[in-house]
Task: structure prediction
Amino acid sequence: MTLLDLSSTQFFATADGRDLATDATFDVINPSTGHVFAQAPAVTPEQLDGVFAAAQRAYRDWKRDDALRRTVLLAAAAAVEGAVGELAPILVAEQGKPLADARGEIFAAGAWLRYFAELDVPREIIRDDAERFEEVYRRPLGVVSAITPWNFPITLAMWKIAPALRAGNTIVVKPSPYTPLTTLALARVLRGVLPDGVLSVVTGPDPLGAALVSHPIPRKVSFTGSTPVGKRVAVAAAEDLKRVTLELGGNDPAIILRDADVESVAASLFWSAFGNNGQICLAVKRVYAHEDVQPALVEALGELARSARVDDGMVEGAQLGPLNNKPQFERIKGLVSDAVDGGARVVSGGHAIDRPGYFYAPTILDNVDDSFRVVREEQFGPVLPVMAFRDEDEAIERANNSEYGLTASVWSADAAHAAAIASEIDSGQVSINGHGGGVKMHLPFGGHKWSGLGVENGPWGLASFTEIQVISGPSRLR
Ligand code: NAP
Result:
């Protein structure tokens, strides 16, 4: 095992292409040990004036040169990919995920930059004749505030950075105080690749996030995080009619039909629920299996949970790391004990792992129903309730009986029948015989109901970082 020693490394916020000095720092904890291993800069809300002013200055030139933006984003992709060896271990240390997953997250950031570099910002000529011309442009908005959570700090930042910059905006990113370091290091890697002020990264505890929303300079807030905080962001942004994109929580159902082959479903379903230790907005969070297959499925999932290797993310072969932080660890413990008190049967796990850090055994629960907190609420951790249903209409109704609507999945030997059921599910994406299969750079991702507002990725995500403008006039042909 290689433990990363960052105790003597100084991390700086990046503003205007330079280090931003701060008077204070805050602790960053390695969730595999529960100990502080680094300090992050505590940028104050007052310092944001200078950060946003630099972003606004940079915007003047950045918005003008479409071809330059393409070239620069391709160079940025290469720089990020070249820094995987440096960035991935920092991500493991602060987030907890296995090193292979962390490397995948950094590589994906490079791929996102490349994809958006090559995407055109649309310009539609509606009319251009001997009398008039009419054109519809997509103009950048200006400076964007981006706020991200702790489960995928780089992926979720890049879903904002790449399209925002491609469209001609400049951006100020604030990662979660639980995972500030990799995003700070990313900005360091991109210094000199991106023009000064185009990308800034600031870190600091509450109320820095709120200050990024209320500041008068940014014209858009792109937020990924919990539903309660997302609602506060929407209210605060409305004061200034800032545009918002909100990617919020999920409580994603998987429906397993009677004809599904339990053996082949189980492994894919397990990793759709337990990848990143269940700390994925679109993880499977409740399973509805037909009563004929539910008992066998429960046992197969229990077996997979028992055999998953949980360890420090830097240990070779670790498949799951710890929970990211103590409040989340305590929340999972509380949800499981609430379920057990209510009569749930623990098929596997059901307890914290006896070692330092925030390790929790992957947990499968049987004998639960929709009234349990672990079913009603987003657990965001390694615990999965597996329930039985009798007929398909009942399964659809129970799947839809949630304030959330991020993603869902339907599993069956008959893909066409599963797709018909998918169309009845109220969520932003539904996958057949897999979960999250539509999470791709070229497809729109966003939630219905309390799971969000707007979408990210693809041309739709790019458009969300623009404002429509019509230019029309007498013919240009004369
Ligand atoms: P969170 O508590 O909502 O925090 C998210 C970010 O918002 C953090 O950077 C946080 O910083 C900041 N913040 C807190 N209060 C704020 C305010 N009033 N104004 C502006 N920013 C504020 O979420 P989390 O616990 O980090 O992440 C887990 C949640 O994210 C889950 O619900 C998960 O489903 C959701 N998520 C959604 C998606 C998606 O794409 N739909 C993807 C991943 C995660 P401070 O901690 O300093 O307050």
Residues 35 and 54 are 36 Å apart (CA to CA). The pocket of NAP is lined by residues 147-151, 156, 174, 176-177, 205-206, 209-210, 213, 224-226, 229, 232-233, 247-250, 281, 378, 380, 406, 447, 452 (CB under 6 Å). The chain has a mean pLDDT of 97. The chain has two domains: 13-248+451-470, 252-441.
